[in-house]
Write a structure and sequence with these properties.
By secondary structure, the chain is of the alpha+beta class. The chain has four domains: 49 residues; 101 residues, Nucleic acid-binding proteins (OB fold (Dihydrolipoamide Acetyltransferase, E2P)), CATH 2.40.50; 100 residues, OB fold (Dihydrolipoamide Acetyltransferase, E2P), CATH 2.40.50.140; 146 residues, OB fold (Dihydrolipoamide Acetyltransferase, E2P). The protein is 21% helix and 40% strand. Helix 1 runs parallel beside helix 3 and helix 2 packs across helix 3. The longest helix has 15 residues. The radius of gyration is 33 Å and the shape is elongated. Bound molecules: zinc ion. Zinc ion binds next to loops.
Length: 440
């Protein structure tokens, strides 16, 4: 290398090392690295900086100077080269200063870590998920304590031919929030969950005139269970344990659901043996109100109110919805089908929640069958039936299991099973006494 070509590198080393080394020494060192050690100019500069203790390696801005593993990134890099595998990639339309712009973003991974990345001037190159690239002249920032890799107008992307990167399986999930199923809430966005497939089925649906297959089922861990829907075939089988990364949460009536879109990554994990016992999925009203919804939740409380619409009701024979004044809101005046139902308010000491109890459980809880209710109504009128039923259930303690949904009026529970709770008065009294004694 001619002296002329070396001049910018010498200047750069002087700038970085300051008065730690003079120009003659730099030339001598460079000569040694380049001609005796036979290394490239970049490696030579790095070596000299290390040797003379340059503190400013971060600001050492040249072509391909600094190469880092993702796990080494601090988020303050101004110019860094990264060789990484594309874990997932997506094109986004954004607006910059009122103008539409396309950017490419996703997650990069190597053996050490994963990080999100954004290509601000994507150009024609299309990144392939699972392929390895050299991302040159990147700059990094941090957001929410996480490093983000940016490829700006100075950046360059090259296919890293022959480079193989094996991501540790759990690294894939480093970016989205890793959560326990029982802690999943509405509005959580992107999550990673690990659970066991309780059930799965494929359904054909028509979306926008197109026939599609949806794979849906139930996933559970030791804290809860959740419905999932996958829009592509991940080959999910009942009984296997999965780490589902980058799924997103969408709620229907307050019940969170796990949606597995194109960005989703599914990996098989060691068998999960600890699965929530649904009968033990007991929550307080306060917890339910905070979560907003959930499946197969068990709740115990006192019936503090019996609402209008309890007792004998009529359902539309076409849509099965309850009718009002002999009419269905959709189908108009129809001959209703008699049914029995309870709409109650349950209070467990932490709060109150509305509960809708079906015919079978209403019969079980009150001891009044639909047939008996109809007989009573024929003789004494339906309002008497309502009073009878109210008298049997009000201020009784019941245990119910059902799905909690939320609407504008807050959460309510649609009961699948219900039972009276026999209060052991003696045991309750003793428990209270113990508590009192402990408090003294
Ligand atoms: Zn109807």
């Amino acid at each position: 290398m001619e002296m002329e070509e070396l001049t910018p590198h010498i200047q750069e080393l002087q700038r970085v090392l300051g008065d730690k080394i003079d120009e003659d020494q730099i030339v001598e060192e460079l000569n040694k690295y380049l001609n005796e050690y036979h290394v490239g100019i970049d490696a030579a500069k790095r070596g000299i900086i290390r040797k003379y203790g340059g503190s400013d390696t971060m600001g050492f801005v040249t072509g391909n100077t600094l190469t880092k593993k993702i796990g080494e990134l601090t988020g303050s890099e101004q110019n860094v080269d990264i060789t990484a595998k594309v874990v997932f990639v997506d094109t986004k339309d954004i607006t910059v200063k009122g103008l539409p712009k396309k950017i490419v973003s996703g997650i990069l991974g190597d053996e050490t870590a994963t990080a999100s990345f954004t290509i601000w001037e994507p150009g024609a190159m299309v990144l392939a998920k699972g392929s390895v690239y050299n991302f040159r002249n990147c700059y990094c920032k941090t957001w929410n304590d996480k490093v983000q890799i940016n490829i700006g107008s100075r950046g360059r992307i090259e296919v890293a031919d022959g480079v193989r990167i094996d991501l540790p399986e759990r690294q894939i999930s480093a970016s989205p929030t890793e959560v326990k199923i029982g802690n999943i809430k509405d509005g959580m966005g992107s999550v990673t969950v690990t659970g066991k497939v309780i059930s799965v089925e494929a359904r054909e649906i028509t979306a926008r005139g197109e026939q599609k297959t949806v794979y849906s089922g139930m996933l559970a861990d030791d804290t809860g269970k959740i419905q999932f829907s996958a829009w592509s075939d991940f080959g999910i089988k009942e009984g296997e344990s999965l780490c589902i990364s980058n799924a997103y949460i969408r709620s229907w009536k307050g019940i969170p659901q796990l949606n597995m879109g194109d960005r989703c990554e599914v990996s098989r994990v060691d068998a999960i043996t600890e699965i929530i016992d649904t009968s033990a999925n007991k929550k307080t009203v306060d917890e339910i109100t905070r979560i907003g919804g959930g499946l197969d939740i068990t709740l115990e409380g006192l019936v503090v109110d019996v609402r209008q619409g309890s007792g004998i009701i009529r359902r539309c024979p076409q849509c099965n919805r309850s009718m009002l004044n002999g009419a269905c809101t959709t189908h108009g005046m129809v001959e209703g089908v008699m049914d029995l139902r309870l709409k109650v308010v349950l209070d467990d000491g932490t709060g109150a929640i509305g509960a809708i109890i079906n015919r079978a459980d209403t019969e079980k809880l009150t001891g009044i069958t639909l047939q008996a209710a109809q007989g009573l109504a024929a003789v004494k009128g339906e309002s008497v039936v309502g009073r009878e039923i109210t008298g049997k259930i009000l201020m009784k303690r019941i245990r119910v299991t059902g799905n909690v949904m939320s609407d504008d009026y807050g959460p309510s529970i649609i009961i699948k099973s219900a039972e009276n709770v026999e209060i052991d008065l003696e045991a309750e009294a003793n428990k209270l006494l113990e508590e009192v004694e402990a408090a003294i």
